[in-house]
Amino acid sequence: MIKGTEAPRRAHPDSDYVHPDKLEFDPENPRFGGLLAGKSQEELQLAIFGEPYYASELVDSLVENGFIDYEPLVVSRKADTFVVIEGNRRLAAVRHIRSNLSQYPNRKSDLDLIPVLIFPSNPDDREESAMRVYLGIRHLLGFREWPPISKAIFLERQSQNDGGLDQIIKEVRITKQQARRFLVPYRLMRKAGL
User: Fold this and answer.
1) 92 and 139 inside one domain
2) Distance between CA atoms of 59 and 93, rounded to whole angstroms?
3) Under a CB-based contact definition with an 8 Å cutoff, are residues 59 and 118 in contact?
4) pLDDT tens per residue across span 47-64
5) Is 74 a residue whose pLDDT tops 60?
6) For residue 112, what are the domain limits?
7) DSSP type of residue 85
8) Does residue 172 carry a pLDDT above 80?
């Protein structure tokens, strides 16, 4: 490197394999619509595993097929652990299996290391955009459907960033009408104090 210059930051996440004990649920995840904020990791495990998030539905597939490497969890680094930005349901299912090994004697051993995409903890504008696009495409456009309230919260939070709602609409390639379909009822509910 030339003296006095900085190495350019990477605009894409790193990939790795991480032990499930090094992964933490994100109580602020838009999927939860703010309902799990302030909960402990144990409380989050119970909530995500059951209704209405149904991580329990993933157990049989993970026991039989193991963790699919090309569907990594999306995480950000937090000291010596990682916060799961995308994939909290899969983490809840993996933790359930690992906590109940006697119930699942035929489970795949690949649940000991989970594939992850590691986004930076303090992303620059390009990295923030890449993360928004990834999550927006996955959930606003339906790879794994989020409830409408979760979509609205995601859009509302992201619209507070530089570029506002127009930027997230452009990045995720949704229409203003699609965004309004989620945001208008959400904003009315908030205004009404619901």
Assistant:
1) no
2) 5
3) no
4) 999 988 889 999 988 888
5) yes
6) 12-122
7) E
8) no
Q: Where are the beta strands (DSSP E) in 1-135?
A: 14-18, 23-24, 73-78, 81-86, 114-119
- Answer yes or no: do 98 and 140 share one domain: no
Which of the four pLDDT bands, split at 50, 70 and 90, describes residue 113?
very high
Q: Tell whether 91 and 159 lie within a shared domain.
A: no
The C-alpha atoms of residue 74 and residue 80 are separated, in whole angstroms, by: 16
The total number of structural domains that make up the chain = 2
pLDDT over threshold 90, residue 129? no
Pair 93, 50: CB distance under 8 Å: no
Tokens of 166: 């127009």
- pLDDT the model gives residue 152: 85
97 & 114 share domain: yes
Alpha-carbon gap, residue 174 to 53, rounded angstroms? 25
